[in-house]
């Protein structure tokens, strides 16, 4: 490892550790900070935001693959295929759309994930390189807000699953008196599930890693048990596999395909930003690249296929397509089967919700006020906000879920991803000065802690990506001709527009007006 006296002020072209006395660069290119590099009491650091020491970067390919398997196998993932079929696609078109979306979103995940194993930093610290030490709070809080909403959605769905299955085990459970339009027993299931999730994440990232290691194979087994059970009852898979598309492959298909593709990409676009929160624990680049590549696109495609095949069997057995796996499992009268389904729903939902929707906002909120908010406090705040936003409203219809929620979120997060990728890969060529990410007045201080180039790229890219958002009459919150009518043609490609426009504009602004010290 190296550590030499600096000869000039660090900038984007400086190699990490080569030319700085306060960094240690190891032979494999990974960088860490020696003791004392970050002053005690720094307002830009706490124990959770500091770089992970090399000795603790030990997640392997299996750990990353297990995280993705655990996250992909959840009820909203299962329902993605059903939402696309409800919009008129046949099962082949739905599975193709989901598979393509996950191959596409894998690329920005690998690009942003690179900084994790190399520098051991979480997403909000990584964003300081492009947005500035203070400016990083802008993308961090946007990402945190989205994660809080997702946490609420997943917790509500998990609570519903417990409610339905317990209703089969304990007669009368679902007929309880209503509060706020829902049985009080449903609210109880929701709150108990919420408390269980926060209890697990409160124990920290190492507990999460161990949980994901066994949760991933358990959920896979549970999905295949459901498939086998339905195959036996159906005597094979039925007419749904032969049901033609209502859209065909012609002019009616593509106006549905592209916004749906963007929505499917948006499903994991949150993780394409904060994936350094996980890869910072990686044993090396090989572990995160192979783990993510083996875990994400394969698992999501397999899960979409399982969803279609099981639903096909339900058409034969019950005379109607039951897309919700919880409602389908609730059809059995076997107590063992119901308990197994209940445990699978619990494990699957907890697995994705903790990894995808609590880790990120916990770090993001800690970045906002490092002296007062740590990882555990941030997780508790996430849990509270996830209830306040009333998540049951966001999944009422496929149009609201896929077009409005996923489409808008995808456009904004794609804009942030474009800036992060442009700064790290095109401007800095993966070279960061690690200590300055925690230091006022350093290379990433810019103008009072804000990089106006990143903010300008975000505003313009976000406007292009979501400014034309529209809804079919009576099926969403946006005007039928778009918020900004002349931008409506871009709305169906929100994530791609956000990534491309912000990336190009950020690079252009940085070349035209380079920051001091570059």
From TrEMBL:
Residues 1-44 are annotated as: Disordered. Its main location: membrane. Residues 23-33 have a biased composition (Basic and acidic residues). It is a multi-pass membrane protein. Pfam families: Transp_cyt_pur (PF02133). InterPro entries: NCS1 (IPR012681), Pur-cyt_permease (IPR001248), Uracil/uridine/allantoin_perm (IPR045225). The keyword Transmembrane helix applies. The chain crosses the membrane at residues 64-87, 93-111, 140-164, 184-202, 214-232, 252-273, 294-318, 338-360, 372-394, 400-427, 448-470, 490-509. The keyword Acyltransferase does not apply. Keywords: Membrane, Transmembrane, Transmembrane helix. It is found in: Membrane. PANTHER family: NCS1 FAMILY PURINE/PYRIMIDINE TRANSPORTER (PTHR30618), PURINE-URACIL PERMEASE NCS1 (PTHR30618:SF0). Belongs to the purine-cytosine permease (2.A.39) family. This is NCS1 family nucleobase:cation symporter-1.
């Amino acid at each position: 490892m190296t550590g030499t006296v600096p000869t000039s002020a660090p900038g984007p072209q400086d190699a990490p550790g080569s030319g700085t006395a306060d960094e240690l660069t190891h032979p494999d290119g990974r960088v860490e900070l020696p003791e004392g590099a970050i002053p005690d009491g720094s307002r830009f650091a706490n124990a959770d935001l500091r770089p992970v020491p090399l000795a603790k970067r030990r997640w392997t390919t299996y750990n990353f693959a297990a995280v993705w398997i655990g996250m992909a196998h959840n009820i909203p993932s299962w329902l993605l295929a059903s939402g696309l079929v409800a919009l008129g696609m046949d099962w082949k078109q739905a599975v193709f759309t989901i598979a393509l979306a996950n191959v596409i979103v894998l690329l920005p995940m690998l690009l942003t994930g690179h900084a994790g194993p190399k520098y051991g930093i979480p997403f909000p610290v990584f964003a300081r390189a492009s947005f500035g030490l203070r400016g990083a709070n802008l993308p961090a809080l946007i990402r945190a807000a989205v994660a809080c909403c997702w946490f609420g959605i997943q917790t509500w769905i998990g609570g519903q699953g417990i409610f339905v299955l317990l209703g089969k085990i304990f007669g009368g459970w679902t007929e309880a008196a209503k509060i706020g339009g829902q049985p009080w027993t449903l609210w109880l299931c929701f709150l108990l599930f919420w408390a269980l999730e926060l209890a697990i994440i409160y124990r920290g990232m190492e507990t999460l890693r161990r949980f994901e290691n066994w949760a991933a194979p358990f959920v896979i087994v549970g999905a295949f048990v459901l498939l086998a059970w339905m195959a036996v009852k159906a005597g094979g898979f039925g007419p749904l596999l032969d049901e033609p598309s209502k859209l065909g492959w012609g002019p009616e298909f593509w106006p549905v395909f592209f916004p749906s593709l963007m929505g499917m990409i948006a499903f994991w676009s949150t993780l394409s930003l904060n994936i350094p929160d996980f890869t910072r624990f990686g044993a090396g680049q090989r572990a995160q690249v192979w783990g993510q590549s083996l875990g994400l696109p394969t698992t999501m495609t397999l899960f979409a296929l399982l969803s279609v095949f099981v639903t096909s069997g339900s058409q034969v057995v019950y005379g109607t397509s039951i897309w919700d796996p919880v409602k389908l499992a609730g059809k059995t009268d076997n107590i063992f089967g119901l308990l197994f389904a209940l445990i699978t729903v619990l494990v699957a939902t907890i697995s994705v919700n903790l990894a995808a929707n609590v880790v990120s906002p916990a770090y993001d909120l800690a970045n906002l006020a490092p002296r007062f908010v740590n990882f555990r406090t941030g997780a508790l705040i996430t849990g509270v906000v996830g209830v306040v936003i009333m998540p049951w409203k966001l999944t009422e219809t496929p149009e609201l879920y896929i077009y409005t929620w996923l489409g808008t979120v995808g456009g904004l997060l794609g804009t942030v991803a474009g800036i992060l990728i442009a700064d790290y890969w095109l401007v800095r060529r993966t070279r960061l000065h690690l200590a300055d990410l925690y230091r006022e007045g350093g290379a990433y201080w810019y103008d009072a802690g804000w990089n106006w180039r990143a903010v300008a790229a975000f505003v313009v890219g976000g406007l292009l990506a979501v400014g034309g958002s529209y809804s079919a009459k009576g099926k969403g919150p946006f005007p039928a001709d778009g918020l900004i009518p002349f931008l409506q043609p871009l709305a169906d490609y929100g994530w791609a527009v956000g990534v491309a426009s912000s990336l190009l504009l950020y690079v252009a602004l940085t070349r035209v007006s380079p920051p001091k010290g570059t």
